């Protein structure tokens, strides 16, 4: 599954760069043959990854997959060796990513709209400001707030999210999100960018909200000039 995750992340990066023709080179013959339909699998843990790759492939005019054994991929091996020799400053600490595999399906839910007109991040912001938990909150919800605390930074009324490269993204509410979509989309090459590119530009500008990617895709689809 790690091979699939790495492949998916790389393809998403190429989509954000508006690449139309792509050659994917991987050292996993299993991944290559499964994506091309030459091999099948009944592993319920792999099937969602495989479907995700196939859906992403539809966004290219041409995409090919090529298997290159690791022993023959000397250039990538040399780059990996060089990167392992680089000494990073101790102060640039990046939190490790913990991945847990469950035997049962997990279902995610997030709010597309802000209830009562309040910002979707209001609970997190209130906890950082007052150090008080929400009323009637469960122990699990309180633990989630404590975990999020390490990723957040409150500066006055502005709430920021720390990124792995030690940058900051400012959280915005629905009203400001709509304004950002309009302003960034009307910029240079705006009518020619896809939803993923628009979301990427908003990130580069230093802003974030939970449904940013899906909102960007819907906004581009409704634009008559795109």
UniProtKB/TrEMBL annotation:
What Gene Ontology terms describe what this protein does at the molecular function level? nucleic acid binding; RNA-DNA hybrid ribonuclease activity
Which InterPro entries is this protein grouped with? RNaseH-like_sf, RNaseH_domain, RNaseH_sf
TM stretches of this protein: none
SUPFAM superfamilies given in the database record:
Ribonuclease H-like
Gene3D superfamilies found in the cross-reference section: 1.10.340.70, Ribonuclease H-like superfamily/Ribonuclease H (3.30.420.10)
The RNase H type-1 domain extends over: 1-81
Which Pfam families does the record match to this protein? RVT_3
Under which name does UniProt file this protein?
Uncharacterized protein LOC107775726
């Amino acid at each position: 599954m790690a091979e699939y995750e790495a492949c998916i992340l790389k393809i998403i990066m190429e989509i954000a760069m508006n690449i139309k023709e792509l050659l994917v080179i991987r050292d996993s013959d299993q991944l290559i043959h499964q994506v091309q339909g030459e091999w099948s699998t009944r592993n319920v843990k792999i099937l969602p990854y495989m479907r995700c790759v196939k859906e992403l492939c539809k966004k290219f005019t041409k995409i090919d997959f090529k298997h290159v054994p690791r022993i023959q991929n000397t250039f990538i091996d040399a780059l990996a060796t060089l990167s392992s020799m680089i000494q990073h400053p101790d102060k640039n600490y990046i939190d490790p990513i913990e991945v847990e595999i469950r035997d049962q399906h997990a279902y995610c839910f997030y709010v597309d709209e802000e209830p009562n007109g309040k910002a979707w991040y209001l609970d997190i912001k209130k906890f950082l400001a007052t150090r008080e938990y929400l009323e009637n909150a469960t122990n699990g919800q309180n633990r989630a707030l404590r975990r999020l605390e390490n990723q957040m930074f409150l500066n006055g009324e502005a709430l920021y999210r720390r990124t792995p490269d030690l940058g900051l993204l400012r959280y915005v509410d629905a009203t400001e999100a709509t304004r950002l979509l309009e302003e960034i989309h009307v910029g240079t090459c705006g009518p020619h960018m896809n939803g993923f590119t628009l979301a990427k530009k908003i990130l580069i500008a230093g802003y974030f909200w939970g449904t940013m990617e899906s909102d960007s895709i819907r906004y581009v689809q409704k634009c008559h000039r795109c």
